[in-house]
Design a protein that fits this description.
With about 325 residues, this protein is α+β, with helices and mostly antiparallel strands. It folds into 3 domains: about 130 residues, DnaJ domain (Helix Hairpins, Orthogonal Bundle); about 100 residues, Urease metallochaperone UreE, N-terminal domain (HSP40/DNAj peptide-binding domain, Sandwich), CATH 2.60.260; about 90 residues, HSP40/DNAj peptide-binding domain (Sandwich). The protein has 9 helices and 12 strands. A 4-stranded mixed beta sheet has the order 7-8-12-11. About 20% of the residues are buried.
Length: about 325
């Protein structure tokens, strides 16, 4: 970085030496929108200009720093030798010939947050400025894919361009082309194969390091995949557990039976106990979803549903009527007490 003695901070911001705090801030806002790295990805000259105007703003907005700059700046030889004796000093110590710009404080970070629509608020460091932003993408999965894990090819946005006015020129994320007013703006997409692990849930995050947007220094942010699991015709998911409704006949429920139950990896035999009731739940351990953290699987809960036949033959009617006459149980006995 060039020495501060070689710069005229007032000239960098395009203001007079008598500019007040409001004029300094207004000038900086105008230039920051023009040269910010998010608006000029990969443009080294814009990055250099952005650092220069940020340094100028950091100095001139502070009354004490501005007084020291006016006294020892490029107009006076004392600027390069004042570090050892200056009282108060600059961030990082002194204002000697080797003075380097050390960063921004919280106020300037907040200003960048305003300029960029809330992005970059807080302490704004060079590291954050140079790294590309993270990208989020929703991926739709069947329950079967979430159960077994799957490799998916997805398309993610990596840049915003205006093909109409700039010959595929790259615009900053969120920027609007001033010539076509956004009508010609399109997203540049990148196709990527991503392995989605078994057991993911809706709303969970899958981090793919280094596949986000490209920053000015060439360092990419990360990609975060957000799964959305589609409804299944048979199974309902509750965390790592699954539930299925199993229709059974009156005879199977009354006498008990061995019944085949669908699971996510094939049918299994389950013993239905005699006297089962509608709504009763039976557990098949380890037949649920894989646990994404900790290993193992959840359980499958089988909810019994007794199906009453809608069409009966004459003989069936007579048998059921006879059974009703023979029965000694009163299912409504508790209601009469």
């Amino acid at each position: 970085m060039r020495k501060s003695a070689a710069r005229d901070y007032y000239q960098l911001l395009g203001i007079g030496r008598d500019a007040d705090e409001k004029a300094i801030k207004t000038a900086f806002r105008r230039l920051a929108r023009k040269y910010h790295p998010d608006v000029n990805p990969g443009d080294k000259e814009a990055e250099r200009k952005f650092k220069e105007i940020s340094e100028a703003y950091e100095v001139l907005r502070d009354l004490k720093k501005r007084q020291q700059y006016d006294q020892f700046g490029h107009l006076g030889a004392g600027w390069q030798h004042a570090g050892a004796g200056a009282q108060g000093g600059w961030p990082g110590g002194g204002v000697g010939a080797d003075y380097g710009f050390t960063g921004f404080d919280g106020d300037l970070g907040s200003l960048f947050g305003d300029l960029l629509g809330g992005r970059g608020a807080g302490t704004f460091t060079q590291a954050r400025m140079r790294r590309g932003r993270d990208v989020r993408a929703e991926v739709e999965l069947t329950l079967e894919a979430a159960f077994s894990g799957v490799t998916r090819e997805i398309a993610i946005p990596v840049a915003q361009v205006c093909a109409v006015c700039h010959g595929e020129g790259v615009l900053g994320r969120g920027a609007v082309c001033t010539q076509c007013r956004g009508a010609g703006q399109i997203e540049q997409m990148k196709r990527l194969e991503v392995k989605i692990p078994a057991g993911v849930r809706t709303g969970s995050k899958i981090r793919v390091a280094g596949q986000g947007e490209l920053g000015p220094s060439g360092q990419r942010g990360d990609l975060y995949l957000i799964p959305r699991i589609m409804p299944h015709p048979l199974f309902k998911r509750q965390g790592d557990d699954l539930q299925i409704e199993l229709p059974v006949t009156f005879a199977e429920a009354a006498l008990g039976a061995e019944i085949e139950v669908p699971t996510m990896n094939g049918r299994v035999a389950m013993k239905l106990p005699a006297g089962a009731s509608s709504g009763q739940r039976l557990r098949l351990a380890g037949r649920g979803m894989p646990r994404a953290h900790g290993g193992g699987r959840g359980d499958l809960y089988v909810q019994i549903k007794i199906v009453v036949p809608k069409r009966l033959s004459q003989e069936e009617r007579e048998l059921i009527a006879r059974l009703g006459q023979m029965s000694t149980e009163d299912p409504r006995a508790d209601l009469r007490s």
